[in-house]
Specification:
Layout: E1 6-10, H1 20-29, H2 32-37, E2 39-43, H3 49-53, E3 60-63, H4 80-85, E4 90-93, H5 96-101, H6 106-118, E5 122-127, H7 131-135, H8 139-150, E6 160-164, H9 178-196, E7 205-208, H10 213-220, E8 227-230, H11 237-244
Parallel strand pairs: 1-2, 1-8, 2-3, 3-4, 4-5, 5-6, 6-7, 7-8
Helix pairs in contact: 1-11, 6-8, 8-9, 10-11
The structure holds phosphoenolpyruvate.
Phosphoenolpyruvate (PEP) binds at residues 10, 165, 170-171, 208-211, 229-233.
């Protein structure tokens, strides 16, 4: 079966109101030909969600994190229901920066993924090993451990997307070899089919970590890579669209 790829941009803690112009440029350059071969999404800071979502065009808008509860006394947090109400159709959960900076465990990530689904959003569930773990030969074990604990039993290809992001490749300009990416994505695919049967073959598995227009064709061409989660190169329309255009061949 063929899986339509997704290139999702994670703007992290970048983006003032003036960044709307960059998003509008993405919308206008995302023409019919490109729309036919790849889905696009930008996950801006939550403050820009409503504004970007009100822009006309086919680039979807997502959020970067959520609280697991629907509402209540959680100062500064945002529930998936609030994010969906602001225009998010997907929510990134378990990004390594949240796991590292906020001590998020895979169990918490799983409850956030379930919460995103409860609100009607797709959960983009991130997993990935650190440099030390890779050097110790534990990359696959760590990734599959995170995957099994972070993905809810109710997950399916419509409500969940997996993003493999080696921590040491994020924002560093370093990338794994195509063979290393192939190995981890194959292990993720196997784990998903073991757990979810035939449905496991339909999940999108994104690669993330220093994806740029110059390396996108090679990385996106690897078996079981169904798109990219992009940080730095998603901030500029030309770079982001350059990555998407790798799907035009
Ligand atoms: C990310 O943070 O999800 C990411 C992949 O960042 P970058 O593309 O900048 O490495």
């Amino acid at each position: 079966m063929s899986i339509k790829p997704l290139v999702a941009g994670n703007w992290k803690m970048n983006g003032l109101t003036s960044a709307k112009a960059e998003f509008e440029a993405m919308q206008s350059q995302y023409d019919g030909g490109l729309q036919g071969v790849v889905d696009l999404m930008i996950c801006p800071p939550a403050t820009l969600l409503g504004s970007l979502a009100s822009t006309s065009g086919a680039v979807a808008v997502g959020a970067q994190d959520c609280h697991a509860n629907e509402s209540g006394a959680h100062t500064g947090d945002l529930s998936p229901e609030i994010l969906v109400d602001s225009g998010a159709s997907a929510i990134i959960v378990g990004h390594s920066e949240r796991r590292a900076d906020h001590g998020e465990t895979s169990e918490l990530v799983r409850s956030k993924a379930q919460a995103a689904n409860r609100a009607g959003a797709t959960a983009i569930i991130c997993v990935g090993e650190t440099k030390d773990e890779r050097e110790a030969g534990k990359a696959e074990e760590v990734v599959i451990g995170q995957l099994s604990a972070s993905v809810p039993d109710s997950a399916n290809a419509q409500n969940a997307i997996i993003a493999y992001e080696p921590v040491w490749a994020i924002g560093t300009g370093l990338t794994p070899t195509a063979d290393d990416v192939r190995q981890i994505h194959a292990a993720i695919r196997n784990a998903l089919t073991e757990r979810f049967g035939n449905g496991g073959a339909e999940f999108k598995i994104l690669y993330g970590g220093s994806v740029k227009p110059a390396n996108a064709s090679e990385l996106m061409g690897v078996e079981n890579v169904n798109g990219a989660l992009v940080g730095g190169a998603s901030l500029k329309a030309d770079d982001f669209l350059g990555i998407a255009k790798s799907y035009l061949g």
